[in-house]
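User: I'm curious whether this sequence folds into something compact or stays loose and floppy. Could you predict its structure so I can see for myself?
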Amino acid sequence: MVDLDRQYQKIKPQIETAFQEILDTTAFINGPQVHAFSDKLKKYLGTKHVIPCGNGTDALQIALMSLNLQPGDEVITPSFTFIATAEVIALLGLKPVFVDVDPATFCMDEKSINAAITKKTKAIVPVHLFGQSVDMEPVLKLADEKNIPVIEDNAQAIGSDYTFSSGKNQKTGTLGTIGCTSFFPSKTLGCYGDGGAISTNDDELAAEIKKIVNHGQSKRYYHDRVGVNSRLDSLQAAVLNIKLDYLDEYIIARRAAAKFYDNAFGEIPELEIPAQVDYSKHTYHQYTLRVKNGKREALHQYLGERDIPAMIYYPVPAHKQKMFDGVKGLPDVLSVTNQLTKEVLSLPIHTELDEEQLLYIVNGIRSFFQ
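Assistant: Here's the prediction. I'll summarize afterward.
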């Protein structure tokens, strides 16, 4: 699904130089590379604060912790997402309130949020899934009216632009109260281990988040609140510092591969290609098709037999996971979500795909439908 080796070979001299500098100085934790990356990402996103942390899941947990929510408070989020989004809600003793997604974009359906809001709703966590933004303008308007903070799960969409009705463009992860992202190696901007970051324009929240990531400290050995130990190490920051310079180039390559797929599959009736919407500029963390007429499993097996990677994200939605069996009030039916789990199939899409590989994948899929 990704080719990290070929990507690494192109930047190998830069990586080796950066790593050697860290090894020579032994500044492995909170070294200058971490601060440099934080500053660079802050400028790229156009936000006031970026606080690096250990991984994307930690980023979500820390963001929720910074809001000082109480056990039993409700957090609205989609069920069709990687489990970490909902997992951290439950981990903190909060109640996940699952809503459905848009059938075209696979992102949280903003129209379903209003019906899910109660007196206990204390946060909304939209997920920019597969590289596509949630339609955030109505979400932000509703959240502002109800005085509910918005935490963006931007783990799969870093670099994506959202366009407001006014024509203003803004990076995902900077639209809500807090933005969270992951630098897992397979991400569009990935490091060589675990890593994450939290962004905000709120000075007070930023100060609180900086405490939480480092054991709740305001200064060394003075702990103002319960926190966690979640730090981006210097080696990972060095990788990200280098790769951030290439992020827009990586996104262009992904979009070119997606266009190749679109042209190949657009006229196959059983396939629905990823939606193009006016408000979101897709970065294609995943290229995800909908396979109609109950043919998804057969196609998946067919591709596997021909050594064509394909993944099902996600076969079981969060609201049907065993981990939430004891949660009361979970929805019985999220019709779009349930249907997507039977139809979605993601194809390889990364910066190193060449025309020969793309043709092999495309011809394999075409042959299935002939």
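Summary: The domain at 4-244 is CATH 3.40.640.10 (Aspartate Aminotransferase; domain 2). The chain has a mean pLDDT of 97.
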